[in-house]
Amino acid sequence: MQVTDVRIRKITKEGKMKAIVSITLDDEFVIHDIKIIEGEKGMFIAMPSRRAGDGEYRDIAHPINSDTREKVQKMILDKYEAILTEEPDGLENE
């Protein structure tokens, strides 16, 4: 599996969520609504989730092992940082 495209929409409101991301896998499958969040220990991604009947949030789509999660997170955060460095306004605003 290869991440073949990463699209980032910057969030302009104040808060911990910095951007919303869509990734394409193998030019065939898209995952929308991955969030880039600024936490106490740095930036991380949160996979798309939905509130269940018990009030808890559960991921809709997610990597099934930590190596894949780290690979996807690194790719997304590297692109986010590169875009901020190259062109601070290079992100789509939401």
UniProtKB/TrEMBL annotation:
NCBIfam families: PRK13259.1 (NF009749)
Alphabetically ordered keywords of this record: Cell cycle, Cell division, Septation
Pfam families assigned: SpoVG (PF04026)
Leader sequence segment: none
InterPro entries registered for this protein in UniProt: SpoVG, SpoVG_sf
Family: Belongs to the SpoVG family.
Its biological purpose: Could be involved in septation.
Source species of the chain: Jutongia hominis
Protein name per the record: Putative septation protein SpoVG
